[in-house]
Amino acid sequence: MKYSTRRKLVRLPVKTIVVTGIVVLAILAVVIYFLVDPTSSQLFPKCAFYMLTGYKCPGCGMQRMVHALLHGEVLEAFRYNSFLMVVFPFAFFLLVLEHYRNRFCRFYRWLSFSYIGIGFLVITILWWVLRNVFDW
After folding, report:
1. Among the residues of the chain, which ranges form H helices?
2. Which of 94, 95, 39 is nearest to 71 (CA)?
3. Closest to 41 measured CA to CA, from 51, 32, 52, 29
4. Model confidence over 36-93: pLDDT tens digits?
5. What percent of the chain has pLDDT over 70?
6. Rounded to an integer, what distance in angstroms lies between the CA atom of residue 81 and that of residue 57?
7. Alpha-carbon gap, residue 73 to 87, rounded angstroms
């Protein structure tokens, strides 16, 4: 009996490859943000909007916030960008809900209405204006 010396290649689903890549990149980003302080490193980009206008955008302070959170300094992270400190858990909740949308159909449909998105947009713009008016 003759055996073939060729091996069959196992094909991974594209979804598995993409998810694995995202997880690896996320772990790498967490390690970099933990080890390198964005306030003193040239590795991290500065906010282009702030450099051009002198006004803070809704995301200004996010890199410093993540660094502070990874070091357990929650109050300092809140000072850097309190809006994102509130939005991140909500965004994580929405991602989990997206994954389980078939199980929680009615709740998913309720959250998918456009007024949720419009409300989020209004709150973001309000934060953008208020943080520049009151220097938050």
Report:
1. 14-35, 48-53, 62-70, 74-80, 82-99, 105-111, 114-133
2. 39
3. 32
4. 999 998 888 889 999 999 999 999 999 999 999 999 999 999 999 999 999 888 888 8
5. 93
6. 10
7. 18
